Prior knowledge:
2 helices; about 80% helix
Amino acid sequence: xxxxxxxxxxxxxxxxxxxxxxxxxxxxxxxxxxxxxxxxxxxxxxxxxxxxxx
Length: 54
């Protein structure tokens, strides 16, 4: 696991926490969707950069 994949996974998990928090606060649905798209992209990019796939 290199540094960039770790950073991407951590940022993705941070955004997932934001999604949960915003959903509890009943924030606008579009903001939650935007955060979920960003979180999923970060997590997928971090997982695909792991070197177990080579």
